[in-house]
Amino acid sequence: MLLVEGESGVGKSRLLAEAVEAAAGLGFVLARGTADESTQLAPLKPLMSAFGESTQTLLGSRGITPADMRLRLVDELQDRLENRAADGPHLVTLDDLQWADPMTLLALRSLIPELASYPLVWILSRTIGSGGSGLDRLYEVLERDGATRLMLEALGDQAVAEVITDMLDAAPDSELLALAAGAGGNPFLLMEWLEGLRDEGAIEISDGHARLVSRRLPRRVQEIVRRHCEGLSSPTRHLLQVAAILGRCFDANDLADMLGEPPSRLLPALEEAEAARFVVPAGDQLAFRHDLLWRAVAETVTASMRQALHRQAAQMLLERGGSAIPAAAHLMRSMRPGDTAALEGLDRAVGEVLPSSPQTAADLAVRALDLTAPSAPGRFDRTVTAVYALAAAGRLAQAAELARTALSQTTLPEQTSQLRYVLAYVLMLAGRPEEAVAQARSALSQPDLSGELRGLTEQVLFQGLFASRDRRRGRERAQTIVAAAERHDPPARVGAHILLAGVGWAEGRAADAIGHLREAVRIASGGPIQAQHAHPRLLLANALTSMRQLGEAEAVIQAVDQEITALGHTAYAASPAICRARLRLASGRLDDAAAEAEAGLAMADQLGMHAFDFLGLAVLAIVAACRGDIETAARHAELYRSRRQAGQGELYGRVWCEWGMALVTEARAGPDKAIDVISDTIAIATERQWLLMTEPGAAGWLTRTLLAAGDRSAAETIVVTAERLAEDNPDFPTLAASAGHARGILHRDLAALARAAATHVGPWTRASAAEDLGVLHAHAPGGSGHDAAIHSLDQALQDYQRTGALRDAARVRARLRKLGIRRRHWRQPERPVSGWDSLTDTERNVATLVAQGLTNPQVATQMFISPHTVKFHLRQVFRKLDVGSRVELARLAADQTSDL
């Protein structure tokens, strides 16, 4: 990855052209794309043009087009690039990214790191000082990921002298060099100035030296262009001015229509413009030779005339039919309030672009709304569209503010109810369930609410009550809907079962809760898209993870991942990876848990949807604490706390996250501080019960930590609660193991701890129980438990080391040393730190499949893991084998096979 930047005219495009020429000589496949101001509303235009694709061809073979195509488009592009890379190395150059649309930036941010192991070279170029924060963020992320960032600086004195010598075939004298400094080292300005002086005979060349005949300082490019234009015929000047309105690249047919002439009559003027080096061929279009040249020509047109010409261009494109997106770029520069025809054109463009680039759609929709009179008939519909577009773009605060403003401006009951539903939906996405519940209740209080809108609003209400832990308030309503299911729409029924699942979980009835979630999944799967947007599978996966039904939880997460992509519900796009991270943590696979959490958080950052961030941050903090990296754990914990204090909400998982923060605090500051973090949770019966249902490791950890903090009474409460949950849920052995673990610690019960150490699911909780058992044996009177203590502690050490819980392993080694036993730091037997033999079994499997030519998604399918995990292991493989590409890996793998 090479990230090129510099001011306009400094030579960025020339550098890319030289790279293309060099790559062509080396046999690279070339893909070249350029962003352009006139097409920056068209999603993925630079990438599509580079690879000869279109959004229609990308999605044409996949059936129904989702409401939000971003995930599908990126997935399809990645598939195409992976297949292309099999044909040999590629060079991808993308120029002028300051004009790139948001979808292009999103795709690049995802594609480049995901495809880092393929023979793809990327060179991106932008003009500094433009492009916005999205492009700045892309460069920062890619640089952090390993890209080389190259700032093209102004030419130095020596380079300026060399340019002059090359152009004039003569060495400049000191006076010519002094005046050339006025170009500021900008190659384009310098060359334009030199050409102007040479054309005017202002330079004399004698005996291989160049000197000035007349003293004329370098002019700004606008002055250069104006002077050049004076030498053109009037028709050619007018043609160039109109062409500049169409964009740096323009179509000859568009130009002819704007000028009201047949294309044949433009030939003389176009030939003159080409001869004067204003325009050059660009594929099937024409283009101004340089960005600065184009801008300078456009600025020769007065502001009022530019606006009129943009309006003419928009009208021409709209009347032609087809896509409204090209016209929208001109409408944004020419519209006036109340222009009905122009507003209808923007409405069309919003509808076209919303599925593939909500950010662009949001900008267009807000602009259309700004130009719509408060009393205009289309204002309400434009408001709702703008709110949805802003929400899809991740601009949730702006979406909520717009909905609230519209609510204050309408008195019509139907509009009020719909706006309250829309606002409740946005607030749920923003992780503010209490506010969402308030808006949904207000909407439902309207007697004339339509059946469809009522069902959607009830679904949001129940989701909000579930997430805000205010489940009892809606219990009766949910029971009524479930009892009379035939009278209610699927979204309402899905929401009702979700709420009743929350009630069952809060009351300690795991089977009942999981049953309601299964029914919600069944109804959603056969219902309309709106019913599926509640994604009850996510809640089911989390419940199964809590009950340590890990195999089924994995399958459910895979299903919801596919569902979210198929529906285009990008608001939830990060959630499967983050739920999988918690599942991996429960399985004791710390590396995989971290890989999934990082992938989920990165996706949330890309899409601007952060409602699931807290679960991801908690996983990363717990993983770091288990590894003994307390500094990193503290950093994640601090980020978690700062976001909560800043009012960034969350949809699910608060209680479990608080336990994670307490666990990290115990590692940093001891048991007293840890209990302070989680004291509110364990003091409230429903919260305490929820935690012990959700995390099997919490009961033993809390009991031990409370005793260390001197609070035996609270520890007894934990044990009583855990034992009641185990008794009430005999079908879930993990609760029995959890209760036995807590009881064994509190009552020093060897048998209970032994059963917990044998029956806990997951190596970390099993190791924790074995460690507690070993400690208890070690304190047996007269040293009678010495051998048993060593045996249990060795079991704990083995499990801790297998998961990578280095801090816990170190503590157990210290306990063994007190018993006179020294255990070395664990290493895989005879495993070196580099080379093929250094690979773990998982890494070797990944390496073998990749060497066979499988893509990351194909490897993931073969190994029943996620592509995020494949990418993590592949990075480890590359590091250990000291290779940088799949080709090198394939060679190494072939060598290994031949040696067998």
Automatic annotation (TrEMBL):
<dbReference type="InterPro" id="IPR036388">
    <property type="entry name" value="WH-like_DNA-bd_sf"/>
</dbReference>
<dbReference type="InterPro" id="IPR027417">
    <property type="entry name" value="P-loop_NTPase"/>
</dbReference>
<feature type="domain" description="HTH luxR-type">
    <location>
        <begin position="832"/>
        <end position="897"/>
    </location>
</feature>
<keyword id="KW-0067">ATP-binding</keyword>
<dbReference type="InterPro" id="IPR000792">
    <property type="entry name" value="Tscrpt_reg_LuxR_C"/>
</dbReference>
<dbReference type="InterPro" id="IPR041664">
    <property type="entry name" value="AAA_16"/>
</dbReference>
<protein>
    <submittedName>
        <fullName>LuxR family transcriptional regulator</fullName>
    </submittedName>
</protein>
<dbReference type="InterPro" id="IPR011990">
    <property type="entry name" value="TPR-like_helical_dom_sf"/>
</dbReference>
<dbReference type="Pfam" id="PF13191">
    <property type="entry name" value="AAA_16"/>
</dbReference>
<dbReference type="InterPro" id="IPR016032">
    <property type="entry name" value="Sig_transdc_resp-reg_C-effctor"/>
</dbReference>
<keyword id="KW-0547">Nucleotide-binding</keyword>
<dbReference type="Pfam" id="PF00196">
    <property type="entry name" value="GerE"/>
</dbReference>
